[in-house]
Amino acid sequence: MFNKFIHRPVFAIIISIIIVFIGTLSIKRLPISQFPQIAPTTVNIFIAYPGASADVLVKSTLITLENSLNGTQGVRYMATDATSAGEATLRIIFEPGTDPNEAVIRVKTRVDQVMPLLPELVQREGVVITPIQPSMLMYVNLYSKSKSMDEKFLYNYADVKMIPEISRVKGVARTQILGSRKYAMRVWLNPDRMRAYKISVEEVMQALQEQSIIGRPGRLGQSSGIATQSLEYVLTYKGRYDEPKQYENVIVRANSEGESIRLKDIAKVELGSEFFDIYSNLDGHPSAAIVLKQNYGSNASDVINDVKAKLEEMKASFPPGMDYKISYDVSQFLDASIDQVVHTLRDAFILVALVVFIFLGDWRSTLIPIIAVPVSLIGAFFVIQLFGMSINLVTLFSLVLAIGIVVDNAIVVVEAVHAKFEEFPHITPYHAVKLVLGEIGGAIIAITAVMVSVFIPVSFMSGPVGTFYRQFSVTMSSSIIISAIVALTLTPVLCAILLKNNHGKEKKEIS
């Protein structure tokens, strides 16, 4: 069967070229990460209930949500966290391998079913559902040495000018600024004055809702269809208040005698920040800390390079005194780790070639395994992509170990051809290869089957540990199988082309 490749050497060479071609394409398309993705899929639900204590949050909101989410398909467990600041977080952990988008849809469906049962303020503030991306890409600090720019200004500048641009970079899953310094109108109520006027917080909130609104007054002079109108007026309203003085003049209470109590009589109004829970500084200067998360299946190095290019582009429009600094960059550790493994891969390949040359004693015989081994290793990347894996330390280390195994098939063929040269001193390389394939073709298949049977059972392990073993097993098995294909197609052709039968011939003496 395998003798047919000797009659068609171009076909045998084309097979190896195709393997190298698709393997090279896979290398360009495969995501690069430091380790395999083993963290389970997690969906985060953020709940805001201003003014509520942790106990109120648990009884009014968290218990309702937990009862609704209990039994969701693929959920392993849930974890909740409530604080006295009126905020709560509910984390839903799914089985490893669950698609994040499907997990979000399942959670949102359950949450929507009980949304009418939650407090009105919780519904208005919003229940934010987001998938958690465990792989952090970068940590960027936007800072300023100018005293005219405080942390509040830097946060809002980053939120308006930078976050939308960075979020559009391909491969960026989430861009978040630690803390919240969004501009907000702060109303600091005075309890003593409120007690004296007998005004409650509910009255203040009701007054704000009634007077600071987005109005739609309508139109005047609209044609009724019976009589024509020469003029038609569209009424406009100044809209929601956006200045402290406007809020200060909000009437909280009024009587028939014309007496009124305004908000400035019982409170202090100022333009401030939404929250004050996190402070960020860089080398003593105020800063806005931006965290970037990687999307599933993206190439970390490419994403980081694109983000850096976008930051440099935006830096040209920064106000004087503003700059940014990358405090954390995962590509530094990733590139350093992969470079070390690539160097190990190179050294292992050189050592294998050296050992083959020492024992075979012929550069032509050494050249054949040197050509065959890269075909097997490069072709393994196509299988890695086929199984949805990535280029990481585990797959690269398995390729390092595979070098010593995949070279054996090529060496077996070369040694068998040399044995035929010894047995038949005048036989041509072409006929020697034909005899060898008829004898050892089945042996190569048997060796490959035995070697693969050692690694394949490991790929059925489950859990985070099983993910590591699965990637190791698939990489080793694929490279071994491809090396068998190369040993039965390309290696015999190379032996027939490159080897010479010098056995039985007298060596020339140098006088």
Structure notes:
The two termini are 49 Å apart. Strands 5, 6, 13, 14 and 15 form a five-stranded antiparallel beta sheet that branches. The chain has a four-stranded antiparallel beta sheet with strand order 2-3-1-4. The protein is elongated. With 511 residues, it is of the alpha+beta class. Helix 13 packs antiparallel against helix 14 (393-423). The chain is built from 16 helices and 15 strands.
What key phrases describe this protein's structure?
511 residues; alpha+beta; 5-stranded antiparallel β-sheet; 4-stranded antiparallel β-sheet; 16 helices
Report the structural category: alpha+beta
First-last Cα distance: 49 Å
Query: How is the main sheet built?
Result: 5 strands, antiparallel
Which segments are poorly predicted (pLDDT under 50) over 5 or more consecutive residues?
A: none
Mean pLDDT, as a whole number? 84
Helix content: 40-55%
SS strand fraction: 15-25%
How many helices in DSSP terms? 16
Query: How many runs of DSSP E, i.e. beta strands?
Result: 15
Radius of gyration computed on alpha carbons: 36 Å
Instruction: Label the overall shape.
Output: elongated
Note the topology.
Blueprint: H1 4-7, H2 9-29, E1 42-48, H3 54-69, E2 75-82, E3 87-94, H4 100-114, H5 120-125, E4 127-132, E5 136-144, H6 151-167, E6 172-177, E7 183-189, H7 191-197, H8 201-211, E8 218-220, E9 233-235, H9 244-248, E10 251-254, E11 260-262, H10 263-266, E12 267-273, E13 281-282, E14 285-294, H11 300-315, E15 322-329, H12 330-360, H13 363-386, H14 393-423, H15 429-455, H16 463-498
Antiparallel strand pairs: 1-3, 1-4, 2-3, 5-14, 5-15, 6-14, 7-12, 8-9, 10-11, 13-14
Helix pairs in contact: 2-13, 2-16, 3-4, 12-13, 12-14, 13-14, 13-16, 14-15, 14-16, 15-16
